[in-house]
Amino acid sequence: MSDLTKLTLKGAIDGLKAKSFSAVEVAKAHLDAIAAANPAINAYIQTTPDQALAMAKASDERIAKGEAGPLEGAAIGIKDLFCTKGVQSAAASNILRGFKPPYESTVTSQLWRDGAVMLGKLNMDEFAMGSSNESSAFGPVVNPWRAKDSSQNLTPGGSSGGSAAAVAADLCLAATATDTGGSIRQPAAFTGTVGIKPTYGRCSRFGIVAFASSLDQAGPIGKTVEDTALMLRSMSGHDPKDSTSLPVEVPDFAAFVGKSVKGLKIGVPGDYRIEGMPEEIARLWDQGIEWLKAAGCEIKSIRLPHTKYALPAYYIIAPAEASSNLARYDGMRFGLREEGGNLTEVYENTRAKGFGPEVKRRILIGTYVLSAGYYDAYYLKALKVRRRIADDFEAAFKEVDAILTPTAPSAAFPLGQRNDDPIAMYLNDVFTVTTNLAGLPGLSLPAGTSQTGLPLGLQLIGKPLDEGTLFSLAGAMEQAAGVSAKPAKWW
Ligand code: GLN
Predict the structure, then answer these.
(1) Is the CB of 316 under 6 A from ligand 1?
(2) In angstroms, rounded to a whole number, what is the distance separating the alpha carbons of residues 194 and 246?
């Protein structure tokens, strides 16, 4: 049998159904690949071989009985932000090290319901705060891609860097991820993978460790557009346990891949042509426009005039919500506890020891912008900007069906390069935070390579609940781009 880790999710599901190989073989092939690669790439915080093999065996039995679910036997990785029953779910933080939730997140329980097999928990930025995976308490993830003629280690992006790196290096067939300001799309762009953040409310947030609740959304990272469509269908759906989850039907997203996009109107926002945008990103964007034109789309220039305020607004709203959400880590209920002379000291010692520097920075910013006297000047103002940004999109979507932009302002950068300058790190999210602020779906797909041979991504933004159109457009662009390059194996 050829290498089962090289399969797409779709290829694996079809092969399993046809009994060309077994789910146990698929799981074992991936566990072996992880064991060989993880010392170098660090994509997994832990593997769960016992679960993986037991789940795979159960899948093989269901396949034998003709009772296969839509993802039956598919070996996937789970971002450490998702609670998995009895399996450490630490959000890559020391404060939750050793925390084994007594329950399962809704998204993961739906994946298991549909037959998927858990390989382990994927590394990420601590509490999903970061764009490079370097804030993880479990060490940074290393991008499987390297620049031409270089052995320098690059970031896979963040915060879902473990998910993206694992998919790119064939250490799982697909992975779950989350996106509060770009954490699915930017790592996908940096690793040559596909990622979609669906409409806010498409996936339940129940059992996902909260960062900024009004922005957080789960989604998949996969090797192809079709693979992410298959994953998203299982991950989506109304959940009474999350009051912001939407009571709407879940379409068969994969059926949209391959559909004609002729006649669709695509908006190109001049406001995203930021100052200092590298030439290769501008060229990639123009190339994407040409592909869509060739597929029969009509290209329209649009305005999203409040874009320049999105990043500052995001970096007020997200830390504000984070400071509130993270108040629960006090050493009393779960995770780390550091003793002290009195209650306040226990709190202080636990939080001082348990949180890393980026998380502390967010808590400080968030507490500051919510404090009496500054609330109106910062937090309330940011909420008003957020409304304007949503209004911009609403006006644009009266004229167009979807919007095309770059995903990130650069290719993957070296680990360590932007560590001492938080603002430089925050600038990574300039094209992605707008959709979180407006609650819209955004998809990143590999569209080309940089001068140094690194993957670059383009982003498609859609109307609320119109992920289907994004899958059709992304499918057309994927065909036109013909990018199937994988990183050269150095690990
Ligand atoms: N990079 C952004 C941040 O640090 C987004 C993170 C995310 O989407 N979880 O907040």
Answers:
(1) no
(2) 24
